[in-house]
Design brief:
Elements: E1 3-13, E2 16-27, E3 31-35, H1 42-50, E4 57-62, E5 65-66, H2 72-78, E6 80-83, H3 95-105, H4 110-121, H5 125-128, H6 140-151, E7 158-162, H7 170-185, E8 189-193, H8 197-201, E9 206-211, E10 214-220, H9 233-236
Parallel strand pairs: 3-8, 3-9, 6-7, 7-8
Antiparallel strand pairs: 1-2, 1-4, 4-5, 9-10
Helix pairs in contact: 3-4, 3-6
Amino acid sequence: MSGITIEGVTAGYGDLTVLRDVSFSVDHGELMVLAGPNGAGKTTLLSTIIGALQPMAGSVRLDDQELIGLPVHRRTALGVGLVPEGRGLFPSLTVWENLRVAARAARLDRDQIEERITAAVTPFPAVAERLRQKVASLSGGEQQMVAVTRALLTNPSVLLLDEPSMGLAPIVWRQVLSTCRRLADEGRVVIVVEQRVLEALDAADRCAVLQQGRIVRDGPADPDSINLPELASSYFNAEAKA
C-alpha cells in the first residue's frame, strides 16, 4: 500500500544542515508519531514534505508522484495537509472566515468553498456550532479542532500535525488523538510530531525518533521497545503523567 515515501532527504537553512539522509515511508491507514528532542529536525522535516523548504538532496513521493520541486499549493492540491505548530489561526476572524481564507489560499474554486467547509466541519460538531464565533473566543481544544478542520478542506490523503498537544488539557489532547486515529482509519497517512510521546503512542501504529537530523529508531508504537532514558527521558515523559 503506497503512501508518503521519504528517501535520502538532506535539508537545512543556508550553511546549517538539519536533516541528514532521512529515509522512511508511511502507508495509507497508518498513524506515525515522530519524536525527538528540540532541534532534532522534526519541524524541518514537515516543512520539507509540505514544500515550505526545498531539500539539498533526496526525494519525497506521495504514492507515485514526486513532490520535490512542486510549490506548496500544488502539494496541497495533490493531497498533503499541514496543521502547523501554534495552529496559525487568525484570532480576530470568525471560524468561518478562517476557513474561507484557508480555502482561498489553497486555490479552491469559489463555487467549491462553501461545500468544502461544510464537509470539513461535519466530523466536528463543536466547530460547526461555532462558525460565526471569533477564534479568540474558543478554547484551546476548539481552536485545535478548527486547525484540523482547515487542513481537511482539501480532503488530504496525508495529514501532518506539528505539536498538536501544545496548550491542551489532557482530556482535550486525548480527543485530538482520537480524531487523528479516526482519520488514519479512514485511509489517510497521519504523521504527528509530538513531545507528549507516551500518550501519543496509544493511538499510533509506529514511532520514529529523530536525533541530530537522523532517524535513530523506526518501529512499532510500543513504549517498551523505546529506550526512554537513552533518548532523554525527561523530554519524553514531559506531561505524560498529567
